[in-house]
Design a protein that fits this description.
Elements lengths: L2 H18 L17 H17 L14 H16 L2 H5 L1 E4 L2 E4 H24 L7 H11 L24 H8 L7
Antiparallel strand pairs: 1-2
Helix pairs in contact: 1-3, 1-5, 2-3, 2-5, 5-6, 6-7
Length: about 180
């Protein structure tokens, strides 16, 4: 396994753990993403996974927001892991909003970043542990910082918040992503 696939597995397991800890009465809870409740947020993460896999060919299946989102995430993350386990698929060049790159790079950069930040959103919305994997936080900051302006487009991140001096990497990442948190 590569560093990217190991990190993806860690990030996906973190999201899945928060998803498993979501109570039946919490699906309509508001999230730090002001336009989404928990159900919308989870559907977004599933949909993003499906779109990333679809870059290999085919169409991304629409997410049934009223369906079993836990099962949908398991299927979508399983499809990503299957693709990452194949060296030929990992190296396959795909095109997307960040230009041409190997599939593994798209997962490592975009999918890990999106899933990691939304893991925190889900944890906050459902009162769960919001501590994120430190290595994944560092890699996400590394990826997102140079594309600051590109990620602030409509439908992207909120305006960044300047963290107070000396804040930890997770706080800096979340503030960069427009989440009001101190740490």
């Amino acid at each position: 396994m590569s560093e990217a696939s190991d990190r993806y597995r860690t990030v996906a397991q973190g999201f899945d753990a928060r998803l498993a800890g979501t109570g039946p009465d919490q699906w309509s809870n508001p999230t730090p993403c002001s336009e989404w409740d928990v159900r919308d947020l989870v559907a977004h993460v599933v949909g993003t996974h499906r779109h990333v896999v679809a870059t290999l060919g085919g169409q991304a299946e629409e997410v049934d927001k009223d369906g079993d989102l836990g099962a949908a995430f398991a299927e979508a993350s399983g499809a990503v892991e299957t693709a990452l386990a194949d060296p030929t698929t990992c190296a396959r060049t795909i095109s997307g909003m960040f230009g041409e790159q190997p599939f593994e790079s798209l997962v490592s950069r975009l999918l890990c970043s999106d899933t990691l930040i939304h893991t925190w959103d889900l944890a906050r919305a459902t009162g769960q542990d919001d501590q994120l994997d430190a290595d994944a936080v560092g890699k996400t900051l590394e990826f997102l910082t140079p594309i600051d302006e590109a990620i602030r487009r409509p439908g992207g991140f909120s305006p960044k918040i300047e963290p107070a001096e000396g804040r930890d990497a997770q706080t800096r990442l979340l503030n960069f992503a427009g989440r009001a948190v101190s740490g």
